[in-house]
């Protein structure tokens, strides 16, 4: 077990360095935006805590979006080296998913401490839902990038942009879709709804993501030609 932990530390070293550089870059952007807001007077009506919460929310949002795309590329290096270290696919998959979850939980804990306007339960629900989404992305996109290389990445990127830009319009066109989405969001945010059902749905979503991820990963032929 200790050998696997040391191997994972080596595998994740470069990824965590990239994450650190991304965080530093976003913080620099936050400082620049703060200066612009102060000069233009946009933030005059906000308290320091409100501004910190707003900028922190922006930081986390940008960080999660960027990390997803970076992670898909870093998977190639991590999986290839992990298999070279002698780790089985099952062991590599298990430890990698645990590290993914720990990374998200660290961000969630910091968010709970910083974002006083949001409840801890809501932040944790968002964190676990994001973990489930990450499992789906890794299973459907990341593992195909490992198999087919750069071509699969561009397919994923185009599909993501089409979904990102087209989903709001599509929801508006489909009858009843707006009400359904509003109900789901309300159940997610409002603690007066049955939270057992909400958490069961989130955990089920995670389970589906992990199963798909493992199914596409277990017999993966790695293509390092990116």
Automatic annotation (TrEMBL):
Keywords attached to this entry: Membrane, Transmembrane, Transmembrane helix
Membrane-spanning ranges: 20-39, 51-74, 95-115, 121-141, 153-177, 197-217
The protein's name in its UniProt record: Uncharacterized protein
The species this protein was found in: Pseudobutyrivibrio xylanivorans
């Amino acid at each position: 077990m200790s050998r696997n932990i040391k191997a994972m530390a080596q595998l994740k070293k470069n990824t965590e360095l990239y994450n650190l550089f991304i965080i530093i870059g976003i913080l620099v952007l936050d400082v620049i935006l703060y200066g612009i807001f102060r000069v233009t007077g946009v933030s005059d009506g906000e308290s320091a805590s409100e501004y910190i919460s707003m900028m922190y929310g922006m930081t986390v949002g940008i960080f999660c979006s960027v990390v997803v795309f970076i992670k898909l590329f870093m998977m190639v290096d991590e999986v290839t080296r992990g298999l070279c270290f002698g780790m089985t696919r099952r062991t590599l998959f298990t430890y990698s998913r645990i590290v993914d979850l720990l990374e998200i939980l660290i961000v969630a804990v910091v968010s709970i401490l910083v974002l006083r306007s949001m409840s801890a339960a809501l932040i944790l629900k968002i964190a676990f839902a994001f973990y489930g989404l990450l499992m789906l992305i890794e299973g459907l996109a990341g593992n195909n990038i490992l198999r087919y290389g750069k071509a699969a990445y561009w397919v994923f990127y185009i599909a993501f942009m089409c979904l990102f830009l087209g989903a709001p319009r599509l929801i508006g066109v489909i009858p009843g879709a707006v009400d359904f989405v509003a109900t789901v969001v309300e159940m997610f945010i409002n603690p007066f709804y049955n939270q057992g059902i909400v958490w069961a749905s989130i955990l089920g979503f995670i389970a589906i993501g992990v199963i798909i991820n493992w199914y596409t990963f277990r017999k993966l032929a790695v293509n390092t030609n990116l």
